[in-house]
Design brief:
about 325 residues, alpha/beta, Rossmann fold, 3 domains, six-stranded parallel beta sheet, elongated, Lambda_DNA-bd_dom_sf, DNA-binding, HTH lacI-type domain-containing protein, HTH_LacI
Length: about 325
């Protein structure tokens, strides 16, 4: 069977090659929606797909977005619904826009040099990077970059860099206040390891937790701060607190499971993510919905806008609203 080309598609659809190209690339043009549907119908008829490698060489674009997930750990846990929710949003929007994504976890910046030498990415989406990492990435990458769940306090002069975040400090304040409103005063904070020298999601949530305590006239008790690698300590020292702020539904599920293993009484908690398991756990979790899928969709859409319209002004910061979902894991203090 003869190999179908863009010329064949244009001829059968009765349009120019440029029009077919614009439709394939979702570029703004004056073609009617009806004509776009006719062009796509002809493409579907022949199962036509453009040669991306050839187009990349000619047009210097690949339709490839690199997803860079920063982690201090050697292994990324794809079992965490936080990651799968984010990836679902990224993949959904990329597919809708005719783009492709490649996921790469990194904890060393030399990985980025290797990636850029071997792949022609149109842009990058970076997840969870700290300030010093962001500075290095901005220096290494000249193409558009979207940073998700990353905080940066240094002025940026480039127009092709955007930050997509929640207001983590405010959301954590709201979550902690829910526990305080239910009479709890000894409130633990359970999270991945963090340092206030590296601004990020967890430090911002810690600050929101402290803000709520201070508002109620309470002093921070550092003995109530537990890192995820100290789960056993968190469980065994449960007599020192009546409730906890836990940094993800995933960690909350591990905590609840360990309490049951040890035949210990449940303690009130509020967590973050509102993932698929939050309402299925017993008790169902009061949690902060961070709209991770929406963050993924927004990030791909914004990077596509920057690529299609490089002269268009784009706001450097985009705030995604979160929402505290109240379920059954917050109880009135009885102790």
């Amino acid at each position: 069977m003869k190999k179908i080309t863009i010329k064949d598609i244009a001829r059968e659809a009765g349009v120019s090659i440029a029009t077919v190209s614009n439709v394939m690339n979702n570029k703004p043009n004056r073609v009617s929606e009806k004509k776009k549907r006719e062009i796509r119908k002809v493409m579907d008829k022949y199962n036509y797909a453009p040669n991306l490698n050839a187009r990349s060489l000619v047009a210097q674009e690949s339709k490839m977005i690199g997803i860079l997930y920063y982690s201090t750990k050697d292994e990324i846990d794809f079992g965490d619904p936080f990651i799968s929710d984010l990836m679902t949003g990224l993949e959904f929007e990329a597919k809708k826009l005719g783009m492709f994504i490649m996921f790469h976890g990194f904890n060393e910046l030399k990985d980025i040099d290797v990636l850029q030498r071997n792949w022609n990415f149109d842009g990058f989406i970076v997840v969870g990077a700290f300030e010093h990492i962001i500075t290095e990435l901005i220096d290494k990458i000249s193409k558009p970059i979207i940073f998700i769940d990353s905080y940066y306090n240094i002025p940026i002069t480039r127009s092709n860099i955007v930050f997509v975040n929640n207001d983590d400090r405010e959301l954590s304040y709201t979550a902690t206040k829910l526990l305080l409103e239910h009479g709890h005063r000894q409130i633990a904070f359970f999270s991945p390891k963090f340092s206030l020298n590296d601004d990020g999601v967890v430090p911002q949530r810690y600050l929101g937790y402290v803000d709520a305590l201070v508002e109620y006239g309470l002093k921070l008790d550092e003995k109530l701060l537990f890192s995820e690698d100290k789960l056993e300590n968190f469980v065994s020292e449960k007599q020192s607190y009546t409730a906890s702020v836990i940094n993800s539904d995933y960690l909350a599920a591990q905590y609840i499971h360990r309490l049951r293993d040890c035949k210990l009484k449940f303690k009130s908690l509020v967590s973050f993510d509102n993932n698929i398991f939050a309402k299925l756990l017993d008790p169902s979790l009061s949690t902060v919905d961070l709209r991770q899928k929406e963050k993924g969709k927004i990030s791909v859409s914004k990077i596509n806008t920057m690529l299609r319209n490089p002269d268009q002004t784009v706001d450097s910061h985009f705030l995604v609203e979160g929402e505290l979902i109240k379920r059954k894991s917050v109880l009135e203090r009885t102790e």
